[in-house]
Amino acid sequence: MDLSEVTELLAVLCDDKTISKSVREALAEIKQGFDSGSGEIGIKVDSALGRLEDLSIDPNLSADIRTKIWDLTSKLEGAANGK
Fold first, then answer.
1. Domain 4-80 has CATH 3.40.50.1970
2. Fewer CB in 10 Å around end: N or C, the chain?
């Protein structure tokens, strides 16, 4: 499972100052989970998908940031399915 695109997109989103601090912190925690060497990757992906789903329903999120989170979710699902 190649997660390089996912971690790159997470890094970009974590540095995006147009995203609220709380969302950036949540994204940084997801990225940190992938960067840590311990744990099963499938569990990390499932956990990340759950957190991203919670983030995407935030009513205070702008449409463009929501779209980026959906894109990240799509990439994660693709990586999990081996695509």
1. no
2. C
